[in-house]
Structure formats: structure tokens, C-alpha cells
Amino acid sequence: MGFHPRSLQRHLKRATPEIQEQSSAPKDDPKDFPELIYRRWRGEEMLEEVVLPIPMRVFYPDEFLDLIRSAGFPITGSWGGYAGEPYGQGKELVVEFALSGAPC
Question: 88, 61 in Cβ contact below 8 A?
Fold first, then answer.
């Protein structure tokens, strides 16, 4: 089963409020995020500008698996990329997991 990142984030917050509250990690500050800047021009005149922070985190492979497990999700598969590379050896961290309490 797959989740959109935002729906996964909401599900994790509901499933593990005690983990969220006890975290000693610094709070995410939007000024620390890289930005996506959209500008629309007509000739030399800028008509619109939108600046959106891009929240991101970097995880080591084992750290990412531990985060998922600590939230109570059983991991059913993991890969290092969409071509099936071994986990931790590809360019991505691809993890498949089940809902908490769901049979694997």
C-alpha cells in the first residue's frame, strides 16, 4: 500500500502523538528550507512571484527504516531504487510497508 507523503505525515502524527511530543529534534523552520521560486513575466514586467519553501529531510538508510518501524508500521519490502537495487545502494530509498496491525 502506498501513501502520498502528506497523508503519511498526517497518519504518523495521529498514530504516534507521543513520539512527536517527545522528539528533541529542532522544529522545522521554513527559513531554513530551500525555496521554489515561480515568476511570471510579460516582457520586462514581472506579473507574479510565488516563493514556496521546500521542506525536506535527509535520512541514512537504517535511520529511515527505524523511523517507519518506530511508528508501528511493518516493513514488507525495501529497495535502493525503482530498478530494484539493493536497499541503501541506489539513488533512492524505496520502502513498502503495511498499515499498523495489518497482516504482512
Answer: yes
